[in-house]
Amino acid sequence: MAMCAAASVTSRLRVLCTVFGNDYRHPVLVHRSMALLDVLSEGRVEVGLGAGWMQSDYEAAGIPYDPPGVRITRFHEAVKVVKGLFGDAPFSFAGDHYTIRALDGLPKPAQKPHPPLMIGGGGRRVLGIAGREADIVSISVTSTPSGEIIPEKIAREMSAEGIAEKIGWIRSGAEAAGRRLEDLELQLGVVCTLTDTADQARTALDTLAKTYGADPAQVEKSPAVLVGSVEQCVEALQERRERLGISYISFLFSEPTAVAPLVARLSGT
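Request: output the structure for the sequence above.
Response:
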């Protein structure tokens, strides 16, 4: 509903959910709703899919919280189903979790061959699937087997070294499917603090370091952190785009007006 509402009052804004947890919706229904919204929005939809991870949500909804390997296998099948239903011909699929029999995916999307597919995840297996299947890869942290995300894990996985490792997993998946990493769009959520003073920048970095149990120097080097003036943040984003290929940025925990000067400065770059 939120995606539909946003699309209905805009003409250029692209809409997506980062990302739909697979086990809450059958992939046939995901396809149908996204295809319809793509038609209604005249081709402004991106489809975000993930394996699902938060155990408390599963329990509240009465959905079995299967082991990660099972959820990821089911998720990969769902990706294939959604992509297959976006095709021109009736689609059939026989997997361990889903069976589709000559189903014609209607309506046909406005974007061809289908709306851009975003896959979100943080582990080797999901990011490998993303490299093989996705148009956009949303790089995130992994949860514990019980569905928890702990601060120290965020600090480790969102460090410069941690993100480089994740991009390596995406590259391996892409190359295994005969694709190039450069043909994919890499998305990352960043924590952004705009400030023109060194003291405020240091305070922001120290606060983040304390929150995640990390060294301030490690936090400052993280591609998931932006602290500084508008020009400093622009330079950092451009450098990360050139070095890591990250070009799709989401601002976490930020009021839109707070990062508006940075967005305006980046427009068209």
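The mean pLDDT is 95.
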